[in-house]
Amino acid sequence: MDEQHIKELLRMKGKTLYHRESRELEFKEQFNFAGLSDYFRDFAGFANNVGGYMIFGVKDAPRVPCGLTAASLDQFDKIDPELITGYLLDFFSPSIDWGCATVEVDGMTFGVFRIFEATTKPVIAKKNDDRGNLKNGEIYYRYGGRTQVILHAELEAIINKRIERTNREWVHLMEKIGKVGPSNAAILDTEKGVIEKDPDNILVVDDELVEKIKFIKEGAFNEKEGASTLRLVGDVVPVSKVEITKKVKEDILKRYPLSATDLANEVRKTLPNVKQNKIWEAIRDNGLKHNHDYSVFNFRNKTAQDEYERLGIVPPATPSIYNGEAVEFVINVLKDE
């Protein structure tokens, strides 16, 4: 969250705010959990355009800052990012990447949602909500100062860009195959653990080796400083037929049984007065989500896990699950504070 940029968005010009609502900016007077579906509509609209900010604590007509009331701030502090992410995944596809924070300006506290531009568009509503703000199959788009169902021109532009990107990916892949020649190319399937050239030429890769394979971003390889990679040595013997047995992986929920909300509740048993946003800060600032001693990413589908394994980047809106050691870690951090 860029705090300086948010302060700029709240800059005054005379007695009113300098910035008006736009395709990248929405103001709300107060935050209320009852309005989530209305906020989600804006989330989808921003994601389908270029992303943007929702700032709570600004009055309308005239547009002046007022800050969050104590009750509204209390609700904002109780936001569970993974619960909100779960709602978004329940209502929209693909996922929406977002973040939230509070910002102090001139003695007032403002709540801020930042919504990032979707990497895969369009984001589409999957079902209706109880308040009638969201409808199954609708695509929302952020226009100048308002969110509405997308119009033909913008939808056509999104579709054309998606087609162009897919075409570029195919061309890039074909160029690589062309350089080595089709007879020398093969496909590595990390799910099945096989390298397949054709039905009669299949190399089986041991499960333990598959887990150790690391992918390097193109152009970032460095023999001395780069990440470790897997080197296969020894005799490679192709086989004509391979029977692949799908193994049931260890249930990670046994090792990491706590959601973020569960973790927060456990922490409050020891520190009952700690605010929830302080718990999220302790998790974020100490990198617990990327430390398998304390947590793992709970991928919602195979595509999301494949994206992480292929690019080394966690797909947006991927929740983490935690173990008891994470609870103890957070408690110790907050005690020190």
Low-confidence runs (pLDDT<50, min 5 residues)? 239-250
Count of helical segments? 11
- Mean pLDDT across every amino acid position: 82
Shape: globular
The arrangement of helices and strands along the chain is HEEEHEHHEEEEEEHEEEHHHHEHEH
Strand content: 15-25%
Over the alpha carbons, how many angstroms does the gyration radius reach? 24 Å
Write out the CATH superfamily name of the largest domain.
Answer: Schlafen, AAA domain
Q: What's the architecture of the largest domain, going by CATH?
A: 2-Layer Sandwich
**CATH structural fold name of the largest domain:** Methyltransferase, Cobalt-precorrin-4 Transmethylase, Domain 2
Number of domains: 3
- Could you give the distance between the termini? 22 Å
Name of the CATH class of the largest domain: Alpha Beta
Q: What is the fold's blueprint, element by element?
A:
Layout: H1 3-9, E1 12-13, E2 16-17, E3 25-28, H2 36-48, E4 52-56, H3 70-77, H4 81-91, E5 92-93, E6 98-105, E7 108-115, E8 124-125, E9 140-143, E10 146-149, H5 152-180, E11 187-189, E12 194-198, E13 201-204, H6 207-212, H7 252-255, H8 260-270, H9 276-285, E14 295-297, H10 302-311, E15 320-322, H11 324-336
Parallel strand pairs: 3-4
Antiparallel strand pairs: 1-2, 4-7, 5-8, 6-7, 9-10, 11-12, 12-13, 14-15
